[in-house]
Amino acid sequence: MSEWGDGTRCVRAGLPEPAPGDPFLPGPVFAAPYHLDPFAGQGTSPNGYGRPDNPTRRLLEAAVGELEGGDCRVFATGQAAITGLLLTLLRPGDTVVLPTDGYFPVRAFATDVLEGIGVRVLFAPTVGPYPSFEGVRLVLVETPANPGLDVVDVAALAERAHAAGALFAVDNTTATPLGQRPLDLGADLVVASGTKALTGHSDLLLGYLASRSAELIDAVTTWRTTTGAVPGAFDAWLAHRSLATLDLRLARQSANAAAVVDLLAGRPDVTGLRWPGRPDDPAYAVASAQMRRIPGVLSFDLGDADRVGRFVEAARLVAAATSFGGLHTTADRRAQWGDDTAPGFVRLSCGAEDTADLVADIAAALDAAGPL
Ligand SMILES: Cc1ncc(COP(=O)(O)O)c(C=O)c1O
């Protein structure tokens, strides 16, 4: 598997051995209970009850695990995976380090729930400075961070965390396992939303966690089984089906982002342009050293909320929508959700449209939006 290129790995990921008469990817298995052996009960089959066991889910876990390079457990959403990780590992009196500039519901969960049960929460910007990790149980980073797109050196920070006895986890949502493999870079755990580019069709919610530690995977599996935050069989199957085209989708999204960045960099009516693949971006050096490819997500400032509205309204190929990583180009004015961003700050997620069409559409829409 590992000697193959990304396209081959995605197309083959998690597929069962070929058997005459069988489909390439078996269809979804819809079951709450399964037939049990009347005498032996559970244990004669991996399928006993749908919350802990589902064969469609297991195939998806095999696929994502192959791509991340560890064992994987999928969850109903990215938030279910992240909060599951935090609540599995953290106990009253523990300390956790979280990003100030990452996905904001994680911060809200930390202050609303974790602090409420006696967990000490320290926040640090993705680019640092980081506090001392002495006495810290878990360091969770998000790189590239959403929505500001700062990047941190995963290997260096993992080493610091381990030297202090802390566990180190990376939110790999924006990069996807084709963009970077945090477990190879020294992380103990990967968490991510599979709702975004991983599955990429804007039609399902998914989360996952991956690790090479059987102990951590066991603990997380117990958490998931007892809290029940599992995806249904149909979503798991759709996700697996979508994974096969991840390489193709990311290639087009990234090429589109590069072209859009070239356009925006030359426009005086656009400020604060960020994309880790742009040579003069502050994240470029670390991103190019650590990432295998750069995602199709960029950000910039259009001055105020009204100008963002005029831009999106004028664009034919840019939809106003939150989330990112899908086939359709979307723009999200993050301040409307409570992110600590300027009123005109836009996260643009490039889709899989033709590059020339997208660039022309965005240029025309900016013209239509009027001057800064
Ligand atoms: C970086 C990051 N992590 C986690 C999540 C949560 O994922 P979900 O919406 O699937 O719960 C998101 C969602 O936007 C995200 O951007």
UniProtKB/TrEMBL annotation:
Keywords: Lyase, Pyridoxal phosphate. One of its GO terms (biological process) is transsulfuration. SUPFAM superfamilies: PLP-dependent transferases. Its cofactor is pyridoxal 5'-phosphate. The modification N6-(pyridoxal phosphate)lysine is found at K196. PANTHER family: CYSTATHIONINE GAMMA-LYASE-RELATED, TRANS-SULFURATION ENZYME FAMILY MEMBER. This is Cystathionine gamma-lyase.
